[in-house]
Amino acid sequence: MLSYRHGFHAGNAGDVLKHAALAAALGLLTRKDKPLCYLESHAGAGRYDLGGARAQKTGEHRAGIGRLWRRTDAPGALEPYLRAVRAANPDGVLRRYPGSPAIAAALLRPDDRLVLMELNAADGDTLSATFQGDRRVAVHRRDGYEGLVALVPPRERRGLALLDPSYEVESDYADVVRAVAAAHARWPGGCYAIWYPLLDRPLSRRLERALVATGLRRILCGELTIDPRDGPGMKGAGMLWVNPPYTLDAALRDLLPWLARTLAEGGAGAHRLEWLVGE
Predict the structure, then answer these.
(1) pLDDT digit of tens for each residue in the chain (279 aa)?
(2) How many Cα atoms sit within 13 Å of 270 on the Cβ side?
(3) Using H for helix, E for strand and C for coil, what is the string for the chain?
(4) Rounded-to-integer distance, Cα 182 and Cα 209, Å
(5) Which of 69, 166, 199, 262 is the right S-S partner for 4, CB 3.0 to 4.6 Å?
(6) Active site residue 164
(7) Is residue 237 within 8 Å of 223, Cβ to Cβ?
């Protein structure tokens, strides 16, 4: 399983996929004037110091956001994400990385809300401090699976829920599906995004099959492979979307091939974009 504290992995290729797709989805959702709610089940610390001991120990960000953030040839679907990263580093030196809560906060509007869940005490403290004074943000120190189901539907009735557990334990693969199915029963109009690492192909395919078996409709899968070689380690990442924003598939169709070429060594990456279930 993945050895996890997110500070070690902040800004890596898996983060790039997660945050670029999230930014694209929020950009589509905010085209409508009505307010929305963003919920996250495993919010982490919110922002990360790329010069800190954890990030420097792995250096994973160098092969992720480090390869992208100054590019001028990126597809348009990547720009909201890159703007958020550049805004976090206004002096032009890549020192800080905004996690998904910070990216969502940068893209959402004054009347939108963020509901962030984090069970880890240290990360929860950092998360609360990061968003202290931002009236849009509520931080909950609770289990993200339980919290997501308990806190929907939001009063706005519109919005997106991101589930991105660590997958340190194999049960996360089943728990994340159960949480989405239970939340969807309470909030069928919401958009749900499940991030997962490509560590073990049978596990990720089992996750797909379990989500399809729930009977939910409109399930989109997007994957990015940066290391096609056999062997241990993280090969890339994927996202499963239930009820994704309209035209998100078109945005990912532009985004994924470019990321595969740019992030993989020697341009040997691959991508996958597939509707697992239609209307």
Answers:
(1) 344 456 567 889 999 999 999 999 999 999 999 999 999 999 999 999 887 667 677 668 888 899 999 899 999 999 999 999 999 999 999 999 999 999 999 999 999 999 999 999 999 999 999 999 999 999 999 999 999 999 999 999 999 999 999 898 999 999 999 999 999 999 999 999 999 999 877 899 999 999 999 999 999 999 999 976 666 667 899 999 999 999 999 999 999 999 999 998 777 789 999 999 998
(2) 7
(3) CCCCCHHHHCCCHHHHHHHHHHHHHHHHHCCCCCCCEEEECCCCCCEEECCCHHHHHHCHHHHCHHHCCCCCCCCHHHHHHHHHHHHCCCCCCCCEEECHHHHHHHHCCCCCEEEEECCCHHHHHHHHHHCCCCCCEEEECCCHHHHHHHHCCCCCCCEEEEECCCCCCCHHHHHHHHHHHHHHHHCCCCEEEEEEECCCHHHHHHHHHHHHHCCCCCEEEEEEECCCCCCCCCCEEEEEEECCCCCHHHHHHHHHHHHHHHHCHHHCCEEEEEEEECC
(4) 17
(5) 166
(6) yes
(7) yes
- The pTM for the full model equals 0.94
Q: Are 197 and 167 spatial neighbours (Cβ–Cβ below 8 Å)?
A: yes
